[in-house]
Amino acid sequence: MFERDNRDRFYAEIVQKTTQYIDLGLWSGIELNKFDRWIGQYKSNDEKILAALILESLVYRSKEHLSALIEHAIYKSIPQALFEYSGDEAEFRNIERVCNYGKNLPHEIAIVPVIRDADPPTKSGPLVARLFKRLGKVNDKLMYWPWQISSLKDISTIIFVDDFVGTGNQFIKFINNHVVKNVDLSKFKVVYCPLTATEVGLDNISKTMPEIILCPIELVSDSNNFFNFCAKNFAMTDDELTKLNEVYFSYLKKVKLDRLGRKTVDGDMSLGYGSLALTYAYEHATPNASLPLLWANSDNYMSLFER
Known about the structure:
This protein is α/β, with parallel strands linked by helices. The chain is built from eleven helices and seven strands. Strands 2, 3, 4, 5 and 6 form a five-stranded parallel beta sheet that branches. A two-stranded parallel sheet has the order 1-7.
């Protein structure tokens, strides 16, 4: 994929840059010895280039980044989305009050984390709820589980919070399974606020549930697909992209991750959920829409991040 001199130089530069990011705390949450073990699993020249390209394309969001995203959601994006929907400037003051710890709480607002049936308590909804409370300083008296919504009184606005939306299918399933069976959403202003979202996922949700106000904080486009990123940023030819694809799947087979997800409801996960092939990770977790080489483990492979 690269000429020898360029290949060796590129690999060395990427490893050095990543090591510096970790040492300086820019990529907090990643231990240097774990990175060394991860990169050491890529042995051949082609495998080393594959690892370097994954690192070069990686979008990593530390706790500091996450805190900034949550703050932006609370003080800018959510109230702006509600204002554009209702035309009422009071939306800005109301949302700011969710961080109050006195008597002036906006009890007409319910903040609800999106949960996923297959995830343990350390993932998805419970974790997102803790992040909004700890990093966003949201008063937990305004946070509810989905099954509590139907019993709430005086609620006019429901804000569903999430860390990531890929295809949008999981959010749609969540609404159908945990919300609309017990709650008539047409009676509320309903906001869905994923901290990060793909364009394809938002489009899917918008077409399926047009009544929901979408409020993503960070957008991920098709250009964030690993192979699209490589094609654009390294001006790869069709033959070079074919070679990269072959190296990728050959390595997946080598570390026994090539059949990941095929016996589950998620289906083929060799390119991540929905075959989105992203290289995106948070410090607290990695979306399964990212390449499994970042988050999946096997007897023959140790991932760089936690799922």
